[in-house]
Structures are given as structure tokens and as C-alpha cells.
Design brief:
The complex is a heterodimer. By secondary structure, chain A is of the alpha+beta class. Chain A contains ten helices and 33 strands. Classes of the chains: A alpha+beta, B alpha+beta.
């Protein structure tokens, strides 16, 4: 019990009753106002003042001098005249204007400056008289400024201005290049900061986020001098020849961001003087890119390399993500490098990594995916002046599909008869085969095959019709048979003539004549005699050589039946007239 | 010339024999792969065998391999193709019933003449139509041509032949009509309002869902399912008889 009432334990118990829930920080309304007014206020109440000066105030004829007008007002509020009332001996050149914000300790105030490049033609004192401009509806007088132009003077200070340097002057559209804006040290090696640095061109895009500042000794006008160097990345966004200059406000000690200093320099003290400075113009030639950009070109210009892609795994299931790591290298800065566009694939869901990473997360949608999709990428090398393909090749993977159940549990016994509870086993043999899954009804060959019986039946029908016709016209059959028999007898006749067998010659000639005239009666040829043949000859042939030949042939044949010896006729000599006669009779068939 | 023809004929026989042997090799190889649990590879091999020579057993095994690797649509299509060759294949019939019960899809809704066409294989219907037609024609022509005595059975045979021909003609129409039936291959295949990749998706179809192809445009089929119509990508839908 004594241990229980230890002072620390008692303190803890007491603290439980005293403790309250943690509450949010209570701020009084006045405190909120203090939070809101933590920054200095913008001064818009103080009357606008203006200054005007020539920089430098003394020059020789033809030298460059800057006429600078400064007003502590916002640029948008100033109604600045198109033309300055200046003497004609002063030739006005390029102009620039800009706005910055002065930090006056407890308040901010806008500061606008207009600057003109002026070259006096002759010596003398020239005054740009005072003139009035309207600032937010209020007239503000610009004071007069005097320029002394001396004919000869050996030690005149040069006007203070910015120096502009570029890494290249001949480049391609979209090709990033470095621009250095230099502010050489002033008198006593004093280095000032620069603010509101800008390049006066519509065809350039400046990446101020990658700006670097340094103080280094550099060559300015042939002399080594310390200078503030502001280096930035610029990308041309319009083709053609482009001239541009730089402008900035001096800002005393108000350096923004880190700065590296090399050499001995002096940082000025005292209040900051905001002076608008400009540089001379630089001309660059921007060439358009070749038109035949390959697929996968995202605007990368320079020289790039890619490491072999790395897959986190090459064996995965459907729906399981895999990461494709791709690392690009380049000879130049990769700050503005645009990674390959996410490809579209039916089999993969592809998610690009968040920049600046250049990898992809891939999720297979089907196990039919056997490789990752190729990721097209190409870049333009300005040195080689051509595109190069840097496509990420496909990576082989094995995607495993999720199987389906092959067996079910029977919940309802009544359905057992209609629904199978498991899949069948493998078929042991290929089973019934088919030449194609296309139905034979749509295959021309098989349909044509079905037409073959039609041809057979048509042929049969044609044969039947012909047969019936010949039955109705027997003379056609007889004539056809007579012609066939006549050709046969004529062949025998030729053989007999060739062998000199006169007897056989006469027999075949008589037979041939009988056969040739038989269909005209109609009669059996063996039943016909000489008169029957002669009856089929016309009048002229009947009494002419043809008739005589018939008579002689039949007489010669009849001698075999004579009881007495008959006078032999030279039958073979009748060959020509027999042929002519048979030709005549055949034509009549 | 005769020798040349003989060589070509022998070459054809040799190619056919080689193809048949290759198909058998694929079939055996696919079976081994299924038993080894390599369903994806087995499906590829069976698909090759079926492409070389469609056969019921090959298609049944192709469907089993596809089912095992999770492709319900491809499995149902393979078994339907097996039934297309042999409507009485028990394995295909069993597997189709099981698969449709598992993935909750219906069998295709057939018209009456399409149902009749399932009673025999397409080849059998074609031969039945051809034989019955020419039998009837022969029964008319042959007695007249050969001057047979007219008999009652001639007329009976003619009537029977014409009847069978007309009946089989209807079934043949059903066969042709069924060639437009296909099955969705992919799971959740989008059915679009227009035949474009950016077309509005009206619904998604389950793998194995039957549909009728109405027409084709570009890379898309216009299909009609039991409930709706729309355009589907060609690789997500395949006809039983391509």
C-alpha cells in the first residue's frame, strides 16, 4: 500500500483529472490581422516621382548613350508616349522597359523604367526637355535631362550595360541552349545582383527555374574583370533568324538563391539602387526540324542513351503489376527531357511513372501476352542533323492465367440429372475429322459434286430421245448402215484391185452398188440385180458410161453361173468408172 | 504426261499423309502437355492440330486446355466447333453444359429449322439432300429410259425422295443460318455503339456468350445477343464456322 501512494503515482492520478483534450490554437481576431499583414504593404498613396538621366552624361559624337526614365509606379498605370520630345541631333535606337518592386523597408513600391539607346550626331549640349505623362490618371512631370557631347575626350566612361553570351548561334527549333547574362563589376570592383532578368524576344522560352548565378572573372571588352554571371536555359520556339537582348534591374546586395564567388569582389552597401540595364542584341538562326519525325519523338533534342530496360519480374499472373525500369542518359541537361509517351496495348494496362522517373508499370490483362509492348522513342541529334531511334524493345514475359473450376459440388440433387458436375476427360483419339469447319453447303466443290447425277440423268434422257427418234425414222438407220457397209465394200474393192484379183474386184463392186441402192427401195442388197441398180441412175448415166459399167460388172459376176465359157472382160480396167459410179451412188444416200 | 500426273497424285497423297501424321503428333503432344499442367502450351498445340485438321477429339481437348487456363470463351467455342462436326459428341455436350453453368451464359437461341439442322452433321445433311433429290429424279427418268414396266413403287420412291429432299433442304438452310452464330472470347468484352475504338460502350459481354453476326465493318462485327445489339472487336468474337 505504501508503494501505491508513491508521490509520482499520485501526481499521475491527479494529472488524469486535470488534463483536458488538446484544443486547437486559439488566435484572437487581432492576431489574424497580424498574420495577414506580416508582409510590408504596397505603397500606392505616395505621389509618383520621376527621374530622367543620360548614362553616361558626357559622350563623344557617335558614342552610345542610354536615356533612362524611372518612375516609382506600376508599368500598367503609366501612359507612356510613343515619341520622346528630343532634339533631332540625338538618334534614338532600341528601347526597353521593365518593372520591378522596391523594398523600402516597411513597404513595397513598384518601380518602372524606360530606357532608350541614343547616339548623338554632333557635339554640343542637348536637352530633352521636361514632359508630362499620365500615371493612373494623374499627370506626372518627367524632368529634363542634359547630355553633353564633346568633340574630343580621351577618358570618357562607357555606358553601363549588360553583356549577353550564347552557347550556340545556329541551332534547331526546340533545341535548348545556354544564355549567360553578365553584369561586369563597376567602379571599385563592386558587384551588384540582378533582378527581373528577361530576354526581349517572342520566339524564346526561358527556363528561369534552372538559372544559376555566379561571380567569376571573365573577359569583358578584352579585359579580365569580375562579373555577375546569370546562366539560364533557353529554348527557341519559333524558327527563323531571331535577334534578342537581355534586360535586368540592378539589385545591390539582394541576391536571390545560392551564388558561387570566384576571385575578389566588393559587394556594395547602402540602399539598393534599382537601375534598368540592357544588353546589345544577339542574332541566332533557328532552323526547323526535319519533317520526317519517327514515331515516339517527344521533342527530345540532343544526344541521349538508354540503359537496357529492367523488368522487376518476367513471370507473373494476369492482373499482377510489373515495373519496367528505363533510365535515360544524355550529354546535355535532362531537366526538360520529355519521356516516351505511354503506349497503348490491348493486352496491357500501362501506367507511366511520375516524372522525373521514366519507367512504366505494366499490368497484363490476359495470359496471351507473351512480351511487354515496345515503347517507341526517338530523339533528334542536332550535331548529326538526323533522328535516332531509341525504342525500348519488348521484353519476353510469361503470364499465367487464372484457371476455372473443373468440378462443382451438387447443391440440388434434382439438377444432377441435367447438369454435369465436372468436365470430361481428355479425348483419347482425334475422333471424327472434317476437312474444314466451313459447312459443305457453302463450298462450291461439294455443291458441284452434287450436280454430277444431274449430268448422268440428262445424258440418259438425251439417249432415250434419240433412240425414240430413230425408231420413228428407220430410213436414217438404213442409210447409215448402207454407208457403213459401202465403206467396207470399197475397202475390199481396193484390196482386190491392188492384188489384181479381177473376180473379187467384180464381186465387191457389184455388192457395193447393190448396198448403195438398197435403202431407196428399201430392200436387202443381196436381193437386187443389175436392173435395180440401173433404175437408180438418171437418164444420162443410165445410157452412158455409168450404165455400161454396171452392166459389165454384173455380167462379169454372172459368168460364174454360166454353163458355157464366156468372154472375159478386163474388169480391172473399169476401176475408175466404178469409183465414180460408187461416189455418185453414195452421194444419193 | 501420264507419269507426270501419277507423280502429282502420289505427291498429294504423301502431303496428306504427312499432314495427318503431323496432326496426330500435335494431338499426342497436347495431351502430354495437359497432363504436365502446361495448359497454355497445350492450347497452342491443340489449336495447331485443329487448324491442320479439325477433329472432334482435338477440339474437345483444346476446349479443356483453354478452360484450364481460364479462357472460358475460347473453351466454349472449341466445344461448339466439336459439336459442329459431330452433333452427338458426348464430351463436347457435357463440357458445354458444365461450362455454361459455371460462367452463367446461355446456349444460343436457335430457330426451329436451325434446331432441326443439329440432328445430323452438315455433311450428312448435304448428302441426304443430294441423294434424295437424284433418287426422286431417277425414279422418274430411269423407268422411261429403260422401258421398265410402270409400277407403283416408282411413284412411291419419287414421292419419298422429294419429301426427304424438301425436309433436308430446310435443315441445310438451318446449317447456313447457324454459320452466323459466334461466341464472345474475352471476358467483359465491350459492346460499342459505333464501330470505333472510342465508341460508347453500351455494355460488356461475358466470355462464352453467344451472339449472331449481322454484318462487319472494319475491325468490328455488328452482333446481336439475346438482349441487345452492338459492335464488338473482331478478336473478341469468333464464329463457329469462320
Amino acid at each position: 500500500m505504501r508503494q501505491f501512494f508513491h508521490p509520482s503515482v499520485l501526481a499521475l492520478l491527479f494529472a488524469v483529472f486535470c488534463a483536458r483534450a488538446q484544443t486547437s490554437l486559439q488566435i484572437s481576431p487581432g492576431g489574424l490581422i497580424q498574420l495577414q499583414t506580416a508582409q510590408p504593404a504596397v505603397d500606392v498613396t505616395t505621389p509618383v516621382t520621376a527621374t530622367a538621366e543620360f548614362d553616361p552624361p558626357v559622350v563623344r559624337p557617335g558614342d552610345k548613350v542610354f536615356y533612362r526614365v524611372t518612375l516609382d509606379a506600376a508599368e500598367a498605370a503609366i501612359d507612356w508616349p510613343e515619341k520622346i520630345p528630343a532634339p533631332s541631333e540625338l538618334k534614338f535606337g532600341a528601347s526597353a522597359h521593365g518593372q520591378t518592386t522596391q523594398n523600402l523597408g516597411n513597404k513595397f513600391r513598384s518601380l518602372t523604367a524606360f530606357i532608350y539607346e541614343v547616339r548623338p550626331v554632333v557635339a554640343g549640349n542637348f536637352i530633352i526637355t521636361n514632359f508630362t505623362v499620365t500615371v493612373a490618371g494623374v499627370a506626372v512631370e518627367i524632368p529634363a535631362a542634359t547630355l553633353e557631347v564633346v568633340a574630343t575626350h580621351s577618358d570618357l566612361p562607357a555606358p553601363r550595360q549588360l553583356q549577353l553570351e550564347t552557347s550556340v548561334t545556329n541551332l534547331f527549333l526546340g533545341e535548348p541552349f545556354r544564355v549567360r547574362v553578365l553584369l561586369p563589376a563597376g567602379i571599385r570592383n563592386e558587384i551588384e545582383a540582378l533582378r527581373e532578368i528577361q530576354l526581349n524576344s517572342d520566339g524564346l522560352m526561358i527556363d528561369k527555374t534552372a538559372m544559376r548565378q555566379s561571380i567569376e572573372v571573365t573577359s569583358v571588352g578584352g579585359q579580365l574583370k569580375p562579373a555577375l554571371v546569370c546562366e539560364m536555359k533557353v529554348t527557341p520556339i519559333a524558327a527563323g533568324r531571331q535577334s534578342f537582348s537581355a534586360q535586368a534591374f540592378t539589385a545591390g546586395r539582394e541576391f536571390s538563391g545560392a551564388i558561387s564567388i570566384r576571385g575578389q569582389v566588393t559587394i556594395p552597401g547602402g540602399p539598393t539602387k534599382y537601375i534598368l540595364l540592357v544588353s546589345d542584341k544577339i542574332t541566332i538562326n533557328v532552323r526547323p526540324l526535319p519533317a520526317d519525325a519517327p514515331p515516339g519523338f517527344t521533342g527530345a533534342i540532343g544526344k541521349f542513351f538508354v540503359d537496357p530496360p529492367q523488368l522487376s519480374t518476367n513471370r507473373l499472373h494476369v492482373g499482377e503489376p510489373v515495373h519496367l525500369k528505363i533510365i535515360f542518359h544524355g550529354e546535355n541537361d535532362l531537366t526538360r527531357f520529355v519521356p516516351p509517351a505511354t503506349p497503348r496495348s490491348r493486352d496491357w494496362q500501362i501506367i507511366a511513372d511520375k516524372p522525373p522517373a521514366t519507367g512504366f508499370t505494366l499490368i497484363p490483362q490476359t495470359d496471351e501476352a507473351h512480351e511487354t509492348p515496345a515503347i517507341p522513342f526517338s530523339y533528334f541529334d542536332p550535331a548529326a542533323e538526323q533522328y535516332f531511334d531509341l525504342t525500348i524493345p519488348s521484353q519476353p514475359v510469361t503470364v499465367i492465367g487464372d484457371g476455372l473450376p473443373t468440378q462443382l459440388t451438387a447443391f440440388d440433387r434434382d439438377e444432377k440429372s441435367t447438369m454435369p458436375l465436372k468436365l470430361s476427360d481428355l479425348a483419347p483419339t482425334p475422333g471424327k475429322i472434317a476437312t474444314s469447319l466451313k459447312p459443305p453447303q457453302l463450298r462450291a466443290t461439294l455443291v458441284c459434286l452434287q450436280m454430277l447425277p444431274l449430268l448422268g440423268l440428262l445424258a440418259l434422257w438425251q439417249w432415250d430421245c434419240r433412240r425414240r427418234f430413230l425408231e420413228a425414222h428407220p430410213e436414217i438407220v438404213r442409210r447409215r448402215q448402207a454407208r457403213r457397209a459401202l465403206r467396207r465394200e470399197k475397202r475390199e474393192l481396193q484390196k482386190a484391185f491392188a492384188t489384181g484379183d479381177a473376180k473379187s474386184f467384180c464381186e465387191h463392186a457389184a455388192n457395193a452398188m447393190s448396198i448403195a441402192v438398197a435403202p431407196h427401195y428399201p430392200a436387202n442388197p443381196q436381193a437386187l440385180v443389175c436392173a435395180d441398180v440401173l433404175a437408180q441412175l438418171d437418164e444420162a448415166n443410165h445410157n452412158g458410161i455409168a450404165g455400161e459399167t454396171v452392166r459389165k460388172i454384173f455380167a462379169a459376176v454372172d459368168t460364174q453361173f454360166a454353163l458355157t465359157k464366156q468372154t472375159q472382160v478386163d474388169s480391172l480396167a473399169l476401176k475408175a468408172s466404178v469409183d465414180a459410179l460408187l461416189q455418185t451412188l453414195e452421194e444419193k444416200l | 504426261m501420264k507419269l507426270f500426273r501419277l507423280i502429282i497424285l502420289l505427291a498429294n497423297f504423301a502431303v496428306a499423309a504427312t499432314g495427318h501424321a503431323a496432326t496426330n503428333n500435335f494431338f499426342a503432344q497436347g495431351g502430354e502437355l495437359v497432363r504436365a499442367g502446361k495448359f497454355s502450351e497445350a492450347a497452342t498445340v491443340f489449336a495447331k492440330a485443329a487448324q491442320a485438321q479439325p477433329a472432334t477429339g482435338t477440339l474437345v481437348n483444346l476446349g479443356l486446355a483453354e478452360w484450364q487456363r481460364g479462357h472460358a470463351g475460347a473453351a466454349i467455342l472449341a466445344w461448339e466447333e466439336a459439336r459442329w462436326i459431330d452433333p452427338f459428341d458426348e464430351r463436347a455436350e457435357t463440357n458445354l453444359k458444365f461450362a455454361r453453368a459455371v460462367v452463367q451464359v446461355d446456349a444460343p437461341q436457335l430457330k426451329w429449322f436451325e434446331t432441326a439442322s443439329e440432328w445430323l452433321s452438315p455433311m450428312a445433311w448435304l448428302w441426304l439432300a443430294g441423294v434424295s433429290l437424284w433418287l426422286a429424279a431417277a425414279a422418274i427418268i430411269l423407268p422411261r429410259a429403260f422401258r421398265w414396266r410402270r409400277a407403283g413403287w416408282h411413284q412411291l420412291l419419287t414421292a419419298f425422295g422429294i419429301f426427304i429432299f424438301l425436309a433436308s433442304l430446310i435443315a441445310n438452310v438451318g446449317i447456313v443460318s447457324r454459320t452466323q452464330i459466334g461466341f464472345v472470347l474475352r471476358k467483359d468484352a465491350p459492346l460499342r455503339l459505333t464501330p470505333t475504338q472510342n465508341g460508347e460502350v453500351t455494355s460488356t459481354l461475358a466470355a462464352g456468350e453467344p451472339a449472331r453476326k449481322l454484318r462487319m465493318r472494319g475491325n468490328y462485327f455488328l452482333i446481336r445477343t439475346a438482349n441487345e445489339s452492338g459492335w464488338i472487336e473482331q478478336n473478341a468474337f469468333r464464329l463457329v464456322s469462320p
